[in-house]
Amino acid sequence: MTATVSRVGKASPAGSTARTGRSLGARITGALNGGLVRVFLVLVGLFWLVPTIGLLISSLRTPEDMSAHGWWTVFSKPSELTVDSYRKLLENGDITHSLVNTVLITVPATVLVVAIGALAGYAFAWMEFPGRDWWFLGVVSLLVVPVQVALIPIAELFGKVGLFGTILGVILFHTGFGLPFAVFLLRNFFAEIPRELLEAARLDGAGELRLFARVVLPLGGPAIASLGIFQFLWVWNDMLVALVFTKSGTQPITVALQTQVRQFGNNIDVLAPGAFISMVIPLAVFFAFQRQFVSGVMAGAVK
Question: How far, in Å, CA of 272 to CA of 104, rounded?
Answer without folding.
Answer: 23
